[in-house]
Design brief:
The protein has helices spanning about 45-50, 70-80, 100-110, 115-125, 140-155, 170-185, 195-200; strands at about 5-15, 20-30, 35, 60-65, 65-70, 80-85, 160-165, 190, 205-210, 215. By secondary structure, the protein is α/β, with parallel strands linked by helices. The protein has a domain at about 1-80 and about 190-218: 3-Layer(aba) Sandwich (Rossmann fold), CATH 3.40.50. The strands form 2 sheets. Strands 6-7-8-3-9-10 form a 6-stranded mixed sheet. It has a 4-stranded antiparallel sheet with strand order 2-1-4-5. It is globular.
Length: about 220
């Protein structure tokens, strides 16, 4: 079995007549923090979603945690172990309060209520927003929403994180706080971003996505 957490070979995605991704090869190994650089609209979000089976592929193969994934049931079996942070936290926050949102993932994974409670409390403390546990999610600032969404992902104890433009729209203080949490997590990361401060702070390897192709970055 492969030691790689994520492996894609010859991955392709089309949207109508447009080729978004073509012949993409990508690997994420334990201990790596791989960053995908590219202009807005280059297909970075599509790549993350395709790796988790959230958009259809035009070709290629994907292995997650050493398991070949071809259909939805394959992806569903491992998706919870690879936490995806969406670019817009409003697309991710499901619970009415910060705590209920953090608890949703563990409960959905089948944890007992007491275990889910503990996981949610632990994740909120990890990202430093345990004092916001009772706050309605719609009352949060943009930075607080991003941290709440990250807490919801971390509560499921993933083996790796996939992050889509995690610092977009954040002020300098909120972005620094988010990067501190990611660094402290010690988790392997696959990050789509054009934020060079984010890349310089965390990346162990940089790839560039342009014209649908993924190449080694500078």
């Amino acid at each position: 079995m492969s030691a790689l957490l994520i492996e894609a070979r010859d991955l392709g995605v089309r949207r109508g007549e447009r080729t978004v991704l073509q012949a993409v090869d990508l690997e994420l190994a334990p201990g790596e923090r791989v960053f995908i650089d590219g202009a807005s609209g280059a297909g970075k979000s599509t790549l993350l979603h395709a790796l988790l089976g959230l958009v259809p592929r035009a070709g290629g193969r994907v292995l997650l945690l050493g398991r070949a994934c071809a259909v939805e049931r394959d992806f569903a079996a491992v998706r919870g172990q690879l936490g995806l942070l969406f670019q817009d936290p409003d697309d991710q926050l499901l619970g009415p309060t910060v705590f209920e949102d953090a608890e949703f993932g563990p409960l959905n994974l089948g944890l007992a209520p007491a275990q889910a409670h503990a996981a949610a409390h632990r994740a909120l403390a990890e990202v430093g927003i345990d004092h916001l546990a009772a706050r309605p999610v719609h009352d949060l600032s943009g930075g607080e929403k991003r941290l709440a969404a990250l807490a919801g992902v971390l509560a499921m104890r993933p083996r790796a994180l996939l992050l889509d433009e995690p610092t977009t729209g954040l002020d300098a203080a909120a972005a620094t706080r988010l990067l501190d949490v990611l660094a402290a997590s010690g988790l392997p990361l696959l990050v789509a971003t054009h934020d060079q401060c984010c890349v310089e702070r965390l990346a162990t390897r940089v790839l560039r996505l342009a014209d649908g192709r993924l190449t080694a970055g500078a």
